[in-house]
Amino acid sequence: MPAAHAAGIFIQYHRDAMPLLAVDNLTVSFPTADGTVRAVRGLSFSVEAGKTLGVVGESGSGKSVSALTMLGLNPGADITGSAVFNGKELLTMSQHELRKIRGAEIAMIFQDPLSSLHPHFRVGWQIAEAIRAHTSASKQDAMSQAVELLRLVNIPQPERRVEAYPHEMSGGMRQRVMIAMALALKPKLLIADEPTTALDATVQAQLMELLIQMQNELGMAMIIITHDLGVIASVADEVLVMYAGRAAERADARTIFFSPHHPYTRGLLGSVPSATGVVGSRLTPIVGSPPSLISVPSGCGFHPRCPFAMETCIDDQPDLIPIAAGPNHTSACWLPPDMTGVGIAMDTARQRYASTHRGARSAKLPGVIAAVEGAAVYA
Amino acid sequence: MPDPAADGDILLGAEDIVKHFPIKEGIFFKHQVGSVKAVDGVSLQVRRGETLGLVGETGCGKSTLARCIMRLFPLTSGHLTFDGADLSTLSRSGMRPYRRGMQMIFQDPYGSLNSRRRVGSIIGDPLAIHHVASGAERRKRVQGLMEVVGLNPEHYNRFPAEFSGGQRQRIGVARALALHPKLIVCDEPVSALDVSIQAQIINLLEDLQGEFGLTYIFIAHDLAVVQHVSDRVAVMYLGKIVEVADVKDLYSTPHHPYTNALLSASVVADPDKARTRDRIILTGDVPSPINPPSGCRFHTRCPKAQPICSTEEPLLKSGVGDPPGHVTACHFPVAEGEKLASEKATILHAVEGFLAEAPT
Amino acid sequence: MSLSTVEAIAGDLPPEDPAVKGIQGRTPLQLVVARLRTDRVAIISIVVILLIIILAIAAPLIAGITGHGATDANVDTGTDASGQPLPPGSAGYLLGTDNLGRDILVRIAYGARVSLLVGVLATAIATIVGVVVGLFAGYFGGWLDGILARIMDVVLSFPYVLFAIVLVSVFGSSLPLVILVIAFFSFAAIGRIVRGQALSQREKEYVEAAHSLGAGNLRIMFVDILPNLVAPVIVLATLLIPTAIIFEATLSFLGLGVTPPTPSWGNMLSDAEGVGFQAWWFYIFPMLFLLLTTLAFNLLGDAVRDALDPRAERIFAARRKKAA
What we know:
heterotrimer, B: alpha/beta, Rossmann fold, four-stranded antiparallel β-sheet, 12 helices, 12 strands, globular, C: mainly alpha, disordered N terminus
């Protein structure tokens, strides 16, 4: 009986297991002079406690905007949908309540540490203040914790460095301070937005390793937002591929890299040297440029750049549907669910399907492609 | 790609190039208080038709070296020859005729194009400056160039702001191509672009090289990209070249500890490889180029450093059994299969120590 | 280089259909115009400036309609029975007459010509000189910058009214001299800004790119850098016009500008000296026009500056939201 009992508990536990963060049908749009920018257009995903979700996409795919929105850092945006963190709805929360959660339960690391560190205060003071804002630690305690945190993130001579101002530090050092500050309160969820993009390879590797180790020890969940498939490959458990404000594909990391379904995911992999192909072979980039978020293409937002586009893709927007290649593998694409993988054979299969399914490729397509090629990106 | 060994014809030769930027102080009477030793004695040869990759981290001087080669400023010392001509001491106007043969593609597709000028006039600039073509003839040639790089010639009159990042980089490529140069120095041409666009530009550069017999110096910090495009690769650290080799040799048997660290740290887009690889620890940050370390500049961070490394500067030389052209500046080069100290254990130790001490 | 291989190279690119135009991006100028159109203050300022320009252009017409020249002392109709000036609203004299029986409306219209002429011409000269000096100083740096920047500092710290008085009293007052004096004291304001901008622009990558193509210094300065300085120069020039107008009015008030009997708003004010509250229309109307003109130019300058500032997008977004 004990075994069965344990199993029962296990099942019970699993049924009750709520994701730490569940985002449902999130939309974010910004009114601008040129029209409404639809940055996020119906995004749903969840993150389990202790897991790492990698969010990958090109600039303008909505990956950063969705994270900022959850933390209430997008004033002026029109937001719908829901984002439930630990049982609490974030999107309707007051700024006061959000402030209590930000930093303490959800911490965020940005690409540019200078934008998040105050230029006129010493870094030690800033870390200590972050600690004191959420705990009852005394000034001395907070300061000595700050020193320990700096030591943890591999800053040499932390006792001296707490006295430094942000501008006295190198970019890598500042990013480490940011990480120290984010880890100070042992958050349940760490959102890292391109945390290492601005850093050199050796520093980047060090910091990613540090984040992984901290995660293992603290059991915190991480969302790593990046355009770098290498970072995704080395840290993510689950991967969410975003395109034009929507989820294109979601699966565990190995499935994304070895059995992708969505042509955009495949295109991304084909664009990176030695990602999965042979070193020295020709890259297979995605044609065209990402669309303007003011006039997102109809149907599947990727169809103007997709080599497999069918008539359906122009008219109907696909939702995430289960794919055969892995557990929890979903893809928002009209191609048959069993067509997964990378490589020329797979491409041929897809091409054949696309050309036979619901007639030939639409004659409209080249024109649509041209429109996107010429689209202005006006910031 | 052409075989570099088959064609030993040197297009560009740099010998002991030095570029120091003086640091001045004082309000009325400025006096020099030191100098940033951005490039400090670099020698390399670029063969006709090859792609030489140049890698290194921020501040290693790779961009300054590119600008030395382009003679965008006077050299502090050293010799630079291009296609047989000595460019080392030419004045700005003396350089002008040679600029037709060497062009540059810049990193920032936004900053490198003048936002207040129309694309047609930007691409036509070299034709205007060198009085190659004017009026309708210039327009025709510019539109031809736009087509070559995959831009719509109809967009001749648009402003750079009306193009996406990738298209802007194509504009930069078209401008560099306008005068039929022999050499194009590409300074991080894809690092500011989205992944899918990077591949477009890399393919374009490869096609153009095949079509027009171009020689590239390709500067990047992304080792995968450099591996993809280069025939040979030079690794820079703090103003010096520490290792040069054919791309296969360098990536399979790197000899300099810094090259090893760099290669082990670069993330590969493959979840199986990325998780199993052990990274090499490098302590601290890159030292300041104002006061570079004595001897071997890497000795302060090198896992293999010995006393001699801080006193005697190692020279670039070929090791025993190395293929021709593989040179390393190290007293204790890393042998094939040798393992350097690992990073994971150290960080794990630090994390555990922190959690033990911190109040919960 | 042959273009026959174009297709091979551009092969993996989508064909671009020239008939399908992409979304049009907007040039900076279009953006500024679009933003100014949402700015009520800017529109009112432009209307006021246009009205004053029309007034200046129509000065002879007004003189013709009223039958009074700008310098005509209308002894018969321009004064009342006891020889006193007529108040505003009197028959034939909309804004009244001065103590010589001259029509104030006509004089104000002619005064507008002087003010606008001085304002625009002096600003134009100052802008050209300031841009050239600032560009050379900022682009070349070094000793040239040292000299030019110090000269500009000296000019800016000069007690310019005193200096103008001395100059004019030595050379005698004339309109061209007034314009030159004003331009001389204004160019440094533009020059300093242009110098600072040129200093930062010359570090930009596009300048490096031009250099790598073999462009000469003059080409880089005037073909590459100058177009990038147009925005701040336009703002400054718009703000300099009212300063020049006031400068002229001051000089004329002191009797060193436009010589009577030619009307200018400044010497009309000086004619009003000592009339007290009795003949308020002597000074109220020139003052009102002076104020209206300078205020309109100043507000327009501010509005253009906001419209050119990319960081001000939030303000415009809020304004759009309010309008919607």
